Amino acid sequence: MTVALRMSNLYAPTLKEDPAEAELASHRLLLRAGMIRKTAAGIYTFLPLGWRVLNKVADIVREEMDAIGSQEMVMTVLQPAELWTESGRWDDYGPELMRLKDRHARDFCLGPTHEELITTLVDNDTRSYRELPLSLYQIQVKFRDEVRPRFGLLRGREFVMKDAYSFHVDQTSLQEHYDEMSRAYGRICERLALEYRPVVADSGQIGGKVTTEFMALAEAGEAELVYCECGWAANVEAAETRVPRSPAVSEPVALDKRPTPGLHTIAELAEAWGISEHDTVKTMAGKSPEGRLVFFCVPGDRELNPVKAGWAVSGVELLDEADFKEFGIPKGSLGPVDPPAGTLVIADASLKGDVAWGVGANEDGFHLYGAQPGRDFEVAQWADLVFAQPGDECPDCGGELLGARGIEVSQVFQLGTKYSEAMGASFTDENGDERPFVMGCYGVGVSRSLAAVIEQHNDDGGIAWPISVAPAEVAVLPLGDGEIATAAEGLYNALADRGIEVVIDDREERPGVKFNDADLIGWPFQIVVGKKGLAEGKLEVKDRATNQKTSVDLDCVVEVVVDLVHGERAKFAH
User: Under 8 Å CB-to-CB from 532, ≥6 apart: which residues?
Assistant: First the structure.
């Protein structure tokens, strides 16, 4: 169907000034270009141009899902609490789960994801291994009660997501589909013109042990990642960390208890002792689900990674102020020597060879220098506990890691039998035995991807959409009426007849307003129709991505622009 739009009819209320609440380019430009409007914190209405872009992103996702045999469906947004209780996530998911009660006081939630619902659905209708593998997906509005909704579409409470779920007889089948889905996700990023990296990640509230995030590189991204030129990359929360260690003291020394009044930070301690923070060890305290005190010891110049702490002790929570009082321990001078009875001491693996730790003495105003593992205290477990950072050693090739920031646009998970076992979802195998489904799940943030495209494709003038998701491909800008308007209408109709998505700015506005709005909205190609150009038989064609302007003969302009559009389309074709 030919797409021909008129600015005089479009509901696209552009803004001249940057909205005060907009911090990031995508948020600011979507508001200024008249593509979204705020309803409440983290909740946005898509206006016609924004909705066109969102649907184009969704169509790209849909094409790639259909191509690998995943079948589209739609599930209910409203989900009964019983399903989430059965999986164990009703309490575990936390306050981000939007909960409500109906008139009969029954508990429901607005789905942030659909593992429980799809597992029950497939279990009710799928009996035999002959019906597997099965892959189903939907593109739907999701809800998550973010504690700090911000950055426009990048961290909202209501958002559009594609979520897919696959069911298999065994791990081999799951791995095959996981790899196929990962390749499809890479193609989605490429068709959105996103510079991206697939990175090792943490599964978080979804669960499962194997997961990969697809990160769109952007300085505005909330996620930090590390990567190597060999191709390895990971989110800093999940990256295997190999901390370079070069302690100043290589031989054991006598344990020395030193007064340190008023020193509560590693930086203060290192300065007072005349050593580097690298030669100190900081201790963070947590408690296990059973209430056991846990001390995590990490290099003084590194930070404890709460995700990895949870890997070392499942369900551990770092202490808050009330917990410190309850356990009777000093917050500013914790250490592994003589901790309270029953304390579990876990240390970062990089410290295993160090023989002289500078640590807290578990007594206000005192620290210990020269503490040696095995002599002065025992470490129950050596584990990877810290955030990875640039300069660390690549776990794959040993090279030096580099750092970047990114926006998570999609993620794939191997769930295994986490949900099927919890919910009793099974099939009958070839021997007639009941076995739990082996599952995977796969999410694409559709509205988040839209914002990520803008973060990578913008300049001082506004958005520079790649043609694959632009609200229209060509804008015709008449700079007057009479013969100028007539010529512009002729171009508009000719381009539409050739299957080009075209918009004409037929508003009674000054040329400057039309130019500014064209750049702000981000039409990929712009044809300027003015009095001087018509007189000379030449029209100006602008490529928004490069801002390059080319003078084209009037008789050739339609063919030239059609060729330009087809060339750009080919770059992003399925």
Answer: none
Cβ burial, residue 254 (10 Å; 0-12/13-18/19+): exposed
Task: Tally helices (H) and strands (E) across the chain.
Answer: 15, 32
Rg of the chain, C-alpha, whole Å: 29
Within 252-407, residue ranges assigned H as helices are 266-273, 306-312, 321-327
Please tell me whether residue 537 adopts helix, strand or coil conformation: coil
For 353-376, letters b (16+ CB in 10 Å) and e give ebbbbbbbbbbeebbbbbbbbeeb
Tokens 């799951």 belong to which residue?
A: 174
Rounded to 10 degrees, the C-alpha dihedral 37/75/177/421 comes to 120
For position 216, what pLDDT does the model report?
96
Dmax over Cα atoms in the chain, in whole Å?
95
Please report the pLDDT score of residue 222 as a whole number. Answer: 86
Distance CA(68)–CA(177), nearest Å, equals: 9
- In the numeric block, which tokens belong to residue 290? 């059973």
Specify whether the CB–CB gap between 190 and 198 falls below 8 A.
no
Bond into 133 cis (ω within 30) = yes
336 preceded by a cis bond (ω within 30 of 0): no
The torsion angle over the Cα atoms of residues 334, 335, 338 and 339, rounded to 10 degrees, is 50
Full set of structural domains in the chain with CATH: 25-240+402-455 (3.30.930.10), 256-383 (3.90.960.10), 472-571 (3.40.50.800)
Tokens of 255: 């344990």
Nearest to 42 by CA among 81, 117, 98, 107: 98
Please name which of 413, 450, 444, 468 lies closest in space to residue 186, comparing C-alpha atoms: 444
Cα separation, 36 vs 24, whole angstroms: 14
Dist. CA 373–CA 91, nearest whole Å? 39
Q: Could you give the CA distance from residue 364 to residue 268 in angstroms, rounded to a whole number?
A: 15
- pTM for the whole structure: 0.89
Residue 92 near residue 85 (C-beta atoms within 8 A): no
Residues with pLDDT less than 70, the chain: 1-2, 202-208
